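BACKBONE GEOMETRY TOKENS:
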Amino acid sequence: MLSQQCLQQRRKFAVAFLAFIFILAAVDTAEAGKKEKPEKKVKKSDCGEWQWSVCVPTSGDCGLGTREGTRTGAECKQTMKTQRCKIPCNWKKQFGAECKYQFQAWGECDLNTALKTRTGSLKRALHNADCQKTVTISKPCGKLTKPKPQESKKKKKEGKKQEKMLD
């Protein structure tokens, strides 16, 4: 009786072991059947870098627009393309619509020219635009008036009280 139980256990173990070996073989052949993907070849192109023109607004002097790009190369499929772009409307356009500057405070009024000036340093250039590193702008000083001498507050209050008493 004991030997029959032993034989049954051995058979169960042998079946489990054979099943395990069969599964391992199936997984190994499935992996071997997969073809290894060749690494993507890096194309060495003789195309040059894209050179972009300035952004030209569709209407007005700011907002949405387009720019054209060109590149050179004997085997380039594409040598020209158009790209959408945007010119912010709050930028100082006199220095180029693609150049943004950080300005200092306005200087004192020059009495000889009646102008005040301030300097701006380049903060950001869009699309590798050719921008000046520093710019200077001027504007008229405006009216130069002397401040009026003010009456003291006590005198004003007293005057109002007297007016009320008269009414």
